[in-house]
Each structure stands twice: as C-alpha cells, then as structure tokens.
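Hi team,

Below is the intake form for HTH luxR-type domain-containing protein from Streptomyces vietnamensis. Please confirm the fields before the structure is written into the shared record.

FORM ID: S-0412
PROTEIN: HTH luxR-type domain-containing protein
ORGANISM: Streptomyces vietnamensis
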Amino acid sequence: MAALSPEAPGRPLLILVEGPAGTGKSRLVERLREAAPDTARRVVLGEPIPVDRPVLLVVEDVHRASAEHVAALHALLSDPPARLVCLLSCRPEELPVPGMVLGPDTEFPARLTVVRHVVGPLDLAAVRRTAVDALGADRCPAGLAEALHHASGGVAQTVADLLDLLAARGPAAGQPRPAEVAELGTPPRLAALMLRRVLSVPEEQRPIVLAAAVLDEPATAGELAAVAGLATAPGRDALLTALHRAALDPRGEGRYGFSSPLAADTVRRWTPGPVLELLHRRAARLLATRQPVPWERLAGHRRACGDERGWLVAVERAAQRFEEDGEQQRAARLLESALATGPVPPHARPRLATLLARCAVVGLRSDQTHDVLRHIVADAGLPPAVRGEIRLDLGLLLCNQMGQVVEGRAELARAVDDLAGRPVPLARAMAALAMPYGPDAPFAENIAWIERAVKVAAESGDPVIQAAVAANHVSVLLNTGDPAAWSLIDGLPRDSELVGCRQHAARGLCNAADASVWLGHYERSRDLLAEGVALAARSGAAYAEQTGHGCTLVLDWATGHWPGLAGRARTFVDEAGTMPYLVADARLVLGLLALTRGEWADAVDHLTGPGAADLDSGPVPISAAASGALIRLALAHEDIDGAASEAAAAWGRLRTKGIWPWAAELAPWAVEATVRAGAVDTAREMAAEFAGGLDGKDAPSAAAALEWTRGVLAERTGRAAEAKACYERSAAAYQAIRRPYQAALTRVGAARCALAHDGDSGSAVAVLADCATAFDALGATWDAARTRSELRHLRPVAEPRSPGRPRYGDLLSPREAEVAELAAAGMTNREIATTLHLSPRTVEQHVARAIQKSGARSRQGLGRALKGAGN
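The structure came back. Fields below:
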C-alpha cells in the first residue's frame, strides 16, 4: 500500500487478485484495505475520482460483474488518474472469457502498472497454523493437519468450514482424531458450490464429471471418456465444457479432476446408485488394463459395482503386493476392513486372516484387527496348523501393540502346541516366548525358549525366521548385560535382499538400543537407534520405528537432554496412546520429569493413571523405574510405610524375573525405604542380592546404582565416612556415563555425609552449590529447592553476613521465589514445607507475599507471573 502514501510518485496501479473459490481472496483484500493509509480516499465505482490525492478502488468478484460495471472499469482504466490504486479480485475459472479479467476487450495502457497476485491452496504448515488458531494447540493431535489438508485440498474456506464442524463438537468430545475429518462429510458451502457447477454442465456431457468423481484421482481425457462411456470427440468436448464451467480442474501433466477429495465425494453422493454402479464397472475395466495393476483401487471399484469375486481377488493381490514392498500397515488396514465388513466367503477367511495376522505384527495397533483374529481363531473348523499360525500373530499383537502380555503369552504357548512339525512359525512362537520383558516368566524360562528357537530356526533353513530369532536372541542376552550379545548385533541381516530380514534386523537394532539404555551404554544406544529407526522406516517396520522413538525419550531423560523433552513425550503419547507398551516409555519420562519439578500429582497420574503400564503386568524395566519414582515420592511425603510397601512389591517382581541390571532405577530408593521402615537386615539382603545379580554383567548404570545403594545403606546405619566414599564412587560412575541428574543426586549425598562425618561445611557448601546449579540447568525445580534449603542451613556458618534481615522491597526474596516456584508447580503448602524444612504457616505467608508482589491473581497464576517478571 506504499502507492497510497502522500509521498508516493504519481503512477496508477492495478492489482489483480486471482484465485479459485474459497482460497481466501476476500480475506487478502480486507487485509489490503486495512493496510491503506488514512490519507487515502475510498471511492465507489462510478463516483468522480479526485486527482489531487491517493485513491483506493476495490472491486471484488469481477467474474460476476454486470456489463455496466465492466464498461465503467474499462473507461476508468483506459485513462486512470495518476494517484489511483485499483484492486480487482476474481475467480479465474469463472471468468466469461478465460484469462481476460474484463472480457475480450481487456487492455491496459502503458502508464498503468499491473500486478497479478494469485491466491492458491494453503500448504500443510498454513493448515496446521489455522487449525491451532481455531481449536487450540492441545486439541490438534499429530496427523490432524495432514487429514485436513488432504480432505480440503488446501482450500482455505473448506479448511475453515471443517474446523468449524470439529469445534462445534466442543471439548467434551475430547481431542479430535485425524480419522474424524473423513467422517465430517462435505461442508454445505462446498457441496452447494460443486453441485451448482455440475448442474451447469449440459446433461449429455455431465457423465465426464461423474467419471472423474468415481475415479477419484487425476485422469487423462481418454480415461475420463472411457469411464463416462463417451467416444473420443464427444468426450473431449464434454471435458472442455466441464473445465469452462469449473466443474473440473486441470491437475497437471495432462490430467484432470477435482481440487479436493471432498469435492469428488459430493458428486458421488449426488449421483444415482445405478449410474454409480455402471461407472465403477467401467473404472474397474480401465484399471485392470494398467501395468502394474493398482490392485487396491481396483478392489474398491469392483466392490462398488457388486463384483464380489473380483473384489476378493483384488484385495488379496493388493495385500500381497503391500507385504512384498514392506508396506504391511497398508496391507493390514485393507485386510481388516475386508474381513470385518466385506463379503468374504468362509473358505477364504483363514487365508486372508493369516495374511492379516502376518502384516499386523509389524504395524501399529488396531483393535479391529484384534477382534477379527479373535473371531477367526475361535472357528472350530479351522485346521490346527492354520489356527496355530494365526494364534502366533495374535499372541504377538497382544504382547506388543495391545500391551496384554499375559494373554499374549498364553496364545503363544497354545500356538506352540498347534505348530508342531512346522519349524518356521514354531521357531517364531518360541522366540516370542523368550522375550524377557514380561513379569510372568523367570529369565531362566526365557533362556530355555530362545535356545529351542535358535535350534528350530537353524533346522528350518529359512533366512527370515533365522533373522527373527536372531533379533530376539539379541534382546534376551543384552538385557541381562551379557557381553556376548554385542557380537550377535553385528550379525543382524541389515543388508539382506529380503524385506522380512531387514524388518527383523531393524527390530533387533531398536530392541538392542532399548536394552543399552537400561544398561547405561548411552552412546551405543544412540548409534543403534539411528541405524535401527532408519532401517525400520525404509523397510516398513512401523512398530519397530515407533519403539525406537519411544526409546529415544528414555535415552534423553537418562543423559540430561531435557529441553523440549516433555513436549516430545506428550506428542508421542498422542500418537501412540492406544498402544500401552509403546507409550510406556513416554509416560515414564513424563512422570520422572514431573517428579523433579515438584509436580507430584502429575507424576502419579503419568506413572499410574489411565494409559500407564500396569506395574504388575507391564514391562519389568519400566515398572522398576516407575516404582523407584513412586517410592521416592512417598518418602518425600514422609509416607514410610507406603514407600516400604511399594519397595517390597517392586523387589518381588525383579526377584521373580531375575534380571538385576533392571534394578538400577529402583534399588537406591527401595533400600532407603526398607531401612527407614526399620527392616535393616532386609535392606542388607536386598543390596547383596543386587550385587550378586551383577556379577559378570556389562551394566554400567547398575554398577553406579549399586554404589549409590551401598551409600544409602551405610548412611542410614550411621557409617557416614563409608557412605561418603560410596556416594563419591557412584557420582564418578554416573559422570563417566554422562548421567548428570543422578551424578548430582549422589554428590548431594556425599556432601551430606561429609558434613556428618567431619563437619566440613565449607566443602559441603561448594558441592551443594554446584549441585543446585546442575539441577537448575536441568529444570529440576524440586531438587534445586531441596538443595538450596540444605545450603541455607549451612551458609550462616560458612558465609557469615551482616546482622539484620535484607530488604527486597517489591522484589521476591530468594526464599519467596523458591516457595513460589514450587507452588506454581502444583505442590501443596505441606509438601513445600517438607521439602524446604519450613512450617506450613511460613510457607503460606511466603505464597501470599509472592502472589502480591508478582501481580498474580491466584496460586495457579504464579508460574505465568514469575516468567513474565523474569524472577
């Protein structure tokens, strides 16, 4: 709008704003109007135009202009005033003469500057921003913007209308799912526009539009004519008419269709059933001649025209091709839909179900797949070998994607009985029973299963099952800290020509990365993750890929990469929230982060609330780490009995399992709770059991935790010097493997014991100050506050200050800031008092002063107020 400023040179300007219906031209024009300087005069077409000042003339929807208005614009623009800025908007597809904004006589004089601005569809990023503005970031899960962009074709008005439909459901409906976008139907505005355009095409030429709707993909003129049942010349004429009436759009490369799937859906819904059936039959004949045959699309057309036999053939061929190409997720979606809702004859159901089961275990969770497989396995007429194969994959689905480990292992055990004499699926079932994460089987049983699986797989001669068993063998050995596992990782078939081998190699690498995190081999874990996730993505192993992403969250927690970690974990929960085993990593990380910040209610919710892994049936390393956090939380509340009870239950689970490196996140807290409950002998037995379970194991995290555990036991039984040495060895071990949070916690213990042993408060102050700084850097608000509280008790001796209380005026004192931060995190006055060794009444006074000084309206608003003040 610089041309409208009084200082602008006197040269007329014409701005042509062009774009299809709904792309946001009116909004752009409105923004240009708002940007015009106050000195510019707005005039109506036909009014006398002053020549001594800038003038803005806006004419929208010129494609609808009457002859009189067009003539007036011709007259004005043939000899425009020097200070005129004229803005014309139009839909190019509806201009009476294509490309000529003012008809066939469009002509612009040389001194008129003409600028064209084309408004096109929104890109994905713009759709995402629009969705967040309309619904809020918390109601925009991953995949929602992609679904909106696909359904709308990026047309701004359609995006807005779909968002209005989603918003109308209200927060009570919960977070909208991407799949819901397809269920919304076509917004009335788009439906009216499309049907108006379709009806503007003469009836005898309208089949070309209907054919495009049925094909539902950009098609050539010849393809459209063939499906419409028109000869070449009439088909070409019909296409030209449809394009001129904007019923169809050019889609590039000599193809034509609709601007969005919703537009095509509108036309299909309007088309009478018998006409649709005929069009689908022609479309099926057309697609069957392509090479390669698009079997999935062909299946859709055959089913729509009632060709059930041809549909079944196409479904099976499509699924087989998807499996061969490593796209098991697509195959599973197609097969589960066919088996759940399609006319599949009884003799074909086991065959399709076997294929579905095989694909489902590689992909992501689907309750529909689970229900279909359950129903088929229950068929008494099913041959035992077929039942065993389907039961095997059902067991894997239950164990992994569904998180129902006990039920899944029961199905796997039944599958072993059914699969006698079939070495390939038998070895797979045995290898699955060997996986060590479940709490129901001791490790000795897992070892027995993997040894049997290795033998059967070797006898089978099948490279894919050998790769599957090798991947599980890695998991079984590495999780115990067995050094022999590393050489097995090197033998995984990463470069095999067989996609099944590559998928199992990807799974083995991601599982090895997960085991490495629990062991404390963090650099190795990061390398394995990079390789495993990339291979999983290339080979279509979606579940393994997601496993890798979940493992990355735990790895970043352990190594102190906390900035943005909570947000990434929440996103992962949104994406994988229906799969308990997958989401367990993210929920654990969220719980641990919340604990360090003093967000104790949130910590409990993440660790034990809806969607969290069950401590008694979930993955043992996750349960052990979660129990460690819950014990620590109970100790912070001075709930010694509750802490000891949780410690006993968690220790019992580990003792049953027999994989002691998994005690690394539990042992220090469990032993502390047991000692403080008065069971000193039991605590000593626990420490000894932990130490014995690590003999010969390559588990640096557990080794550091063992020194920590010994330090706790020594400190709580009055041996401060010994405890100090243990804590220092533990801190050094944690620093060596780059675990900054645990290193700081154990250094605090060492400082505490140094003070108790020799009264060296100066040394203790230095260490505690370093630890408080480390906690601050991590964002561990609660730990920083606890450490500063201990510092405050020491500093009067170590750092004498002048008499009298310092005055802070309107600024928060250090203590008030400390209390306010914990209160903003959600801690109660009593919890803050326990943390900072204050009385609840003192905390209440500090909170009141912090609210007054910060300008917060309530306790809940303290966090925002503190951030805004930079306090």
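SUMMARY LINE: The chain is about 65% helix and 5% strand.

Thanks, M.
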